[in-house]
Amino acid sequence: MIALRAARSLLGLSQDELADVAGVSRQMVVRIEKADGSVLVDAVTKVRVALETRGVIFLEASRDHGPGVALSRKVTKERSAELYIAT
Fold it and tell me: pTM (2 decimals)?
């Protein structure tokens, strides 16, 4: 569930914002990020889909590294353009 928190951070979303776009409560996002064992799979799926729709790519763990997250190149390019315009 650390990967979900990292993904949220990559997108610059607050827990409230992620909850809104995923259609779950903020408390559910908190529980997911804390790896609360009583969270329904449906809620985790909603959050993951919301993040993936915004360009997050979840990377599977391998023998050499744990699970991770990245932004698609398209999102990274758009974000760079936004930062350039803002400065």
Answer: 0.77
Q: Using CA atoms, how far apart are residues 81 and 79, in angstroms rounded to an integer?
A: 5
For residue 51, count CB atoms less than 10 angstroms from its CB and return exposed for 0-12, middle for 13-18, buried for 19 or more. buried
- What the block records as the tokens of 23 is 């259609």
* CB hemisphere CA count around 17 (13 angstroms): 10
Looking up tokens 């909850």, which residue turns up?
Answer: 19
Is it the case that residue 79 has pLDDT exceeding 70? no
pLDDT tens-digit readout, 63-78 = 988 888 888 877 655 5
Phi and psi at residue 75, in whole multiples of 5°? -65, -40
Question: CA angle at residue 47 from 73 to 55, to 5 degrees?
Answer: 10
pLDDT beyond 70 at 39: yes
Q: Compute the distance between CA of residue 6 and CA of residue 64 in angstroms, rounded to an integer.
A: 19
